[in-house]
Amino acid sequence: MMVDYIDGAIMENIQKSRVLKSKFPSAKKSSLYFESLVSKATLEIESTIQDLVGLLHDQDYSKPANLRRKFSKFKAILSKLHVLENVIVAAISRRHDDDDFANKLMREICSEIEYPTQTPVVSCLSQHYYRILPYYNLVCMPLLESDFLLHLPDLYHEICHPLISVDNPKTEVIKSSRGKLNRDVKRHFNVEIGRLQKNQFDNSEFLRTYYVWRDSWIDKWSEELFCDLFATLTLGPAYVWSNLHMCAKMDWNLFKIPLLQKSSHPPAGARMQAMFYGLDLIGFNEERKKISIKWEEFIQVIGAAPEPEYHIALPDSFLKKSAEYALEGVKGLGCTLASENQDAIIIKTLNEAWKSFWRSPMGFVDTEERIMKELKKNL
User: Fold this and answer.
1) What is the widest separation between alpha-carbon atoms in the chain?
2) Engineered SS bond to 126: which of 41, 140, 180, 327, CB 3.0-4.6 Å?
3) Where are the domains of the chain?
4) What does the pLDDT average to over 45-60?
């Protein structure tokens, strides 16, 4: 009977959850940087066990009419357990010297920019480029990134996500600024949708794309643009150079827009344009021009071009507004803005690294190794 199967599977995962707690390192081997993550993970494992035990003993779920719901709830609990096992506890249990450096780096970054909430924990265990799990306040970066400079600016993007997605009175100001952008976007697309409907526009598929674009903006695009702009405004040109570097290696769909369903990220071309506006707002006009030239060269090399509907989905006015509203939000948070003469060690190092790269791209490997050794010694 499937009732016996699901109950046996639940029992197995209760035991897995218990064993998972044994994977935390001893006090002697643990890292101070991971203490908050250990506490959070322990509570979440206990919560998972309670959920599984409750599901096991709830007789209503075992009735034939409710068995599908029991399977569904079990699946949802396992999804949470999967993250705990393969990301959170894995990060804690495999702590390495690289993690200590990455966390020292993160603490210095947050100090330099006057980050308004708790410093995120960093693990060099990502299999998906840079990413953050806001609920756990855990940034995952690729294994080798603790020895190289040119992508470290991506950390500044990731640490903005909790400021937007996690409930905290200290960060209401940036949520409010993003809300203003979403308000303007929603108003614009609703007017356009109403205009098409009023004119009895009969292409239902094309009309549907307006809803797709509107909802993409409101659900995710505005957040991603704000995170790009947070990084641009607090670090400066190094983040924009880093984004070009990432696109060259990973994302050639610079102007691809969704037509049938929402997407989580706006196209890279729109993100870059918003960053250019951000650089202009804080006085990096000359550096922006240099990056823009290289960006246009890259576009020509790969033969990228906007689709006909690109500027309908992503009006330039909204990219500019994104930068303006993001600046308002970052100032409201009390974060320090990047400037040409800033001498904060991490900000200066990452921006100088990109200048050194362009002075001698072929010779940068040796320069990078020297800079990293010096940085690790001084943190």
Assistant:
1) 72
2) 140
3) 2-94, 98-148, 161-378
4) 94
H helices within the chain, ranges in order?
A: 2-21, 35-57, 67-83, 90-93, 97-113, 154-158, 161-165, 172-198, 204-216, 222-235, 237-250, 268-281, 285-302, 310-313, 316-333, 345-359, 364-378
d(CA 210, CA 193): 7
Q: What is the CA radius of gyration of the chain?
A: 24
| 376 class by beta-carbon count within 10 Å (0-12 exposed, 13-18 middle, 19+ buried) | middle
Length of the chain (residues) = 379
pTM equals 0.92
Residue with tokens 């935390």: 24
Percent of the chain with pLDDT over 90: 85
Tokens of 347: 């900000």
- Closest to 371 (Cα-Cα) out of 359, 354, 357, 353: 353
User: Would you give the DSSP letter of residue 166?
Assistant: S
Strand partners, 246: none
Q: What span, in angstroms and rounded, lies between the C-alpha atoms of 140 and 129?
A: 8
Supply 207's token pair.
Answer: 């009309």
Which tens digit of pLDDT belongs to each residue from 202-240? 667 788 999 999 999 999 999 999 999 999 999 999 999
Average the pLDDT over 331-353 and give the result. Answer: 95
d(CA 237, CA 20): 43
Sign of CA dihedral 110, 371, 356, 348: positive
Which residue from 132, 121, 174 is spatially nearest to 154, judged by alpha carbons? 132
Instruction: Round to whole Å and give the CA distance between 53 and 206.
Output: 49
